[in-house]
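Changelog-adjacent note: as of this version, every example in the card shows the full chain rather than a window. The one below runs 495 residues end to end.
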Amino acid sequence: MKKSLFKISLLVLGLWLALASCRKENNFNTVNASLRFDNDTIFLDTVFTSIGSSTRILKVFNPTDENIYINRVYLGRGQSSYFRMNVNGTSGKNLTDVELPANDSIYVFIEVTADVLGANSLLYTDSIIFETGNVRQDVDLVTLAKDAYFHYPTDVLQVDLGNSVIEIPYSILPPNEVWGADKPHVIYGYVFVDSDNTLEILPGAEIHFHSNSGLYVYEKGKLLIDKDELGDMNNPIIIQGDRLEPWHENVPGQWGGLFGGIYISLGSEGNIINNAIIKNSTIAIRTDSTSNPTTNLALKNVQLLNNSRAGLYAGYSNIDAENVIISNSGIYLFYALGGTYSFRHCTFGNYWTGSSRNTPAVAMTNFFEDAFGNIKTRDVNKAYFGNCIVYGTSFNEVGLGIEASATFNYLFKNSLLKIDDDPDSKHYDINDPTYFDGCLFNSDPAFINPQNNDFALDSISPALNIGNMNDALLVPFDIFGTSRTVNPDLGAIER
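Full-length structure tokens:
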């Protein structure tokens, strides 16, 4: 038996040697070959100074029938270049003898970390140079680098969730901070507006939050965004994440940690947000309880777009809003647990496509169930919607959770609503003018392009010319400055 195995082993070895002697060797040669590239210019995303970009890929083809060496692949600016590259698994800024098989290809991965050297922005360029024999070719690299003010955490807040403790990095802003439009602000962790202090953000400012970061307005602190209404929606204050690649333009959930994106806490009153776009967060704005009858948040000419959970989440708050667009969130556009609210000429449009959604765009309730199953109430003292639109892709976009033992005062006046119109199964009756006065139900408002946050009305929209004049005169110009004092349309945008 052992002899037979020995013979078989010799036979296998002989066959292997025979095959090896017939195999063509993969010899690589230096030749004068012209390579092909899938791009002649690589555009990297805009980056903040000292912050790295995402990775771009260049594909390099050998169109010849020979295995060749690319004698040298290097960056034109040499070791001083802010670009980095990896060629087929090898990193460096000057690589030699890169093998490229016949009729095959390799990948070059490119990143950049730029320094704008004191300028507000800088178009930074370089090139990858390929030398194959006597043939020299290059691919251009282009990125825009922006200088910024960076806010890094200086401490850690420990939040006890009962079964776990979460650590939240944060820093406290200097007293009465003012952020202008000279350079963007980039925030890591949470920045706190401390008690009795303010953060004022001026027209044209750009605010960028890193992942899991946000703004926390502490008790008696105050946030004032374009408080004097000097800006407009042609040059709005932009509050978003810090990923500047074009394909991150409308990606939800890029920033906002445990407290959401902008968190206005208990006892913070007189907060103002005007002429701003806040987008791509988990919860764009979260407001906590207030015990005083004064407004703790006023919104005017504001868009809250593409938030993974909610646009405006209010816990027993006092909010006054006009010309506000809240759109495309994963759960709610506006949620309220008790409180006092006034919305005039606002558009709520939820055309969320990220996942299935079975929650209404606008949800209000005056009760909740605590951890022990007990019903607790919080009065909805007032919820007024005048000349508004509430619409979306769900069957019912207006959710009212009403506990009869607590106050729930609400009125939709001259508004277009997508709502379950079966009064027998709900706590409301859409035919009762005490709560639904002059409203239009379940008619498509014919927005121009709601999936892309264009909530202008088409010429066939049923929302044209049916607003009440009282609210129109209180808000005489739409979100873009167009007059609405004659035959006003519903929503934030006058056609």
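Structural remarks: Residues 149-474 form one domain.
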